[in-house]
Amino acid sequence: MVFMTQPDLKCIHEPFGDAFYYGPERLSLRFEDDEKGRAESGFSNSTYQTILDRFDRESAEVRPILPSAPFPPTSLFCVANPCK
Questions:
Q1: What does the alpha-carbon distance between residue 53 and residue 60 come to, in Å, rounded to a whole number?
Q2: Which of 5, 24, 62, 74 could serve as 55's disulfide partner, Cβ 3.0–4.6 Å?
Q3: φ/ψ (deg, to 5) at 62
Q4: Residue 20: what pLDDT?
Q5: Is the pLDDT of residue 6 over 60?
Q6: Under a CB-based contact definition with an 8 Å cutoff, are residues 54 and 14 in contact?
């Protein structure tokens, strides 16, 4: 929660939850019998690939916290100073 409230950070909170609970590749049984609820959630088409694609899109818009880190920007869930 602390990271999510910082104006100079962009945090993607629990990004895989949409696909896990609601998407066609869902692994949770929580909403298995609630097709209407999944559709109304707005995440019924979320897949793990669409989440990874979101990382790519959003990481291109910001400067990573650790710009010289030995891993791709998609591995960063929190990034600093959104590009303006």
A1: 11
A2: 74
A3: -135, 170
A4: 93
A5: yes
A6: no
pTM reported for the whole predicted model: 0.63
Q: Would you state the pLDDT for residue 27?
A: 92
Cα distance between residue 1 and residue 21, in whole Å: 21
Q: Does 40 score more than 50 pLDDT?
A: yes
Average pLDDT over residues 12-22: 88
Strand partners, 9: 80
Alpha-carbon span 13 to 46, nearest angstrom: 15
Q: What secondary structure letter does DSSP report for 4?
A: G
